[in-house]
Amino acid sequence: MTDHRVVLAGLIGAGIQASRTPALHEHEGDAQGLRYLYRLIDLDALQLDVNALPDLLMAAERMDFTGLNITFPCKQAIIPLLDELSPEARGIGAVNTVVLKDGKRVGHNTDCLGFAEGFRRGLPDVARERVVQMGAGGAGAAVAHALLSEGVQQLSIFDVDDSRAQALANNLNQHFGTGRAVAGHELASTLARADGLVNTTPMGMQKLPGMPVPVELLRSALWVAEIVYFPLETELLRNARALGCRTLDGGNMAVFQAVKAFELFSGVAADSARMLADFQRMNG
């Protein structure tokens, strides 16, 4: 096992100033006796967009970064710039972790594992016959793979871009079998028949307040899961809880994807219970 005593990592994304990821990684690094520095590379703050990714990757390599986490809106745009993909990242078609080593850029996806772990812990015994997912972007692709792996029978995917929802459904059906995923068209009627609702869009973040579905479509029998974690209680979750829905916030996914990313960057096993406790303390 490689044990880099110095780790320099970063997060590339838009509007990420409230991210808990740097503190999560650095605290765990301190606990493990590593010199662990984690930097935010915020496209909004730098007045850049995804077109800056080639330059940012090259700069990270030149400055000897160990690796980078990748978030909205870069999880798919980063792929053509990488040398290799892990099997998970290739299957999902999205990358949230890039390891920079021996002159190579290797893309991984720890979002899928992160969501699955959170789902198993937070909603272990919910009905999974029909589930509605809002969003078909990079995070949505990872969550959809996790949901079908966790036994969801049919996933209806809604996205502002119909072709993106259809492309994700096609990818999922190749992996999991025909008919397991469909691009959704009638949100009200589909949600009325669903067991659960998952939001994988950025709607609900501090910089994008609001709800991904109209509040009147929620009902108490529906379970509701969220991947946004700043704020931890989004408008969607607040309204769902008020109706008596079982809910899952974005905290567990944030922690468990970070646990795996920490291990990829440092070569050292992370203490997931300590990182979870750390996250809860930061959000207490």
UniProtKB/TrEMBL annotation:
It comes from the Bacteria. The keyword Coiled coil does not apply. GO terms for cellular component: cytosol. Transmembrane segments: none annotated. Coiled coil: none annotated. Residues 11-98 form the Shikimate dehydrogenase substrate binding N-terminal domain. Keywords: Amino-acid biosynthesis, Aromatic amino acid biosynthesis, NADP, Oxidoreductase. Its EC number is 1.1.1.25. It catalyses: shikimate + NADP(+) = 3-dehydroshikimate + NADPH + H(+). InterPro entries: Aminoacid_DH-like_N_sf, NAD(P)-bd_dom_sf, Shikimate_DH-bd_N, Shikimate_DH_fam. One of its GO terms (biological process) is amino acid biosynthetic process. The keyword NADP applies. Shikimate binds at S19, R20, T21, T71, N96, D111, Y229, Q257. Gene3D superfamilies: Leucine Dehydrogenase, chain A, domain 1, NAD(P)-binding Rossmann-like Domain. Belongs to the shikimate dehydrogenase family. Homodimer. Involved in the biosynthesis of the chorismate, which leads to the biosynthesis of aromatic amino acids. Catalyzes the reversible NADPH linked reduction of 3-dehydroshikimate (DHSA) to yield shikimate (SA). This is Shikimate dehydrogenase (NADP(+)). It comes from Pseudomonas prosekii.
